[in-house]
Amino acid sequence: MARILLIEDDSTIAEGIVLGLKSHGMMVDWFGDAKQGELALQDGMFDAVLLDLTLPKGDGMTVLRNWRSKHIDTPVLIITARDAIANRVAGLNAGADDYLVKPFALDEVVARLQALMRRCQGRSQSEVRYGDVSYQPDNQQVFYQGNMVELTIKEVAILEQMLTHPKQIHSRASLEDKLYGWQQDIESNAIEVHIHHLRKKLGNDFILTKRGIGYYLNPAYNQR
Q1: Do 116 and 189 sit in the same domain of this protein?
Q2: 29: three-class secondary structure by DSSP
Q3: N or C, which end of the chain has less CB nearby within 10 Å?
Q4: Roughly how many angstroms between the first and final C-alpha of the chain, as a whole number?
Q5: Letter string b/e over residues 90-107, b meaning 16 or more CB atoms within 10 A of that residue's CB
Q6: What are the pLDDT digits (tens) for 141-186?
C-alpha cells in the first residue's frame, strides 16, 4: 500500500483526491499549507507527493526546492492551475518528477503516481517477484506459488515495503510509519500480528526476525 503526501489548500479538490486514492488502495496524509506539508515529508516516510504550487504560508516551488536541497528524493507530482510552459519548465527544473495541470482526471493522477513509484523503485514492469511470491503493485494482487492470496491492506503494505527493499532489515517503527497516518492509534503488537499472518499465508520461513532490530526477507527463499 503506497503512502502519499498530499499538499493542497482547496478542500474540495483535496477531499476528492483522498477518496479517489484510497479507493485505489493508497493511504493519504493531507496538509493544507506549505509549512506543514514541507515538515511532513521531512518527518515521515512517503512513497510519493502530490504538491500544489499556490499555497498558504509559502509557495509550493519553494517547498520543492527546500526538499531537494536537503537531498530528499521522494517522487513529486506537481498539481497546479499554472499551465504556462514556463511554469512547467520551472517546476521540473526545481526537482519535480512530473507536472499535471488542473483540472485533471483522477485516473490520470493514479497512473502517473504509479509510474513515478515504479521508476523510483527501479521497476519497469508492474510486478515484483521474490521466490514463490509475486506482487502486482498497481492492482494490489499477491500470488504464492501461482495462486492468488487474500491479504489485508496492512499486510499488503508490509509486503510491498519488504519486497521493494529486499536486503533491508525493517524495524517495527519504520513499518508503523509506512502503515499508519499521523493521527492513527497503533496497538503495541500490531506489526507482530501482521507479520504472523503473512507467515501463515506465504510460508513460515518467508519473513525472518532479527531480535531487537526488526524483520527481513529470508535470502534463501529467493533462491528456490
Answers
A1: no
A2: strand
A3: C
A4: 26
A5: bbeebbbbbbbeeeeeee
A6: 899 998 999 998 889 889 988 988 888 999 988 888 777 765 556 6
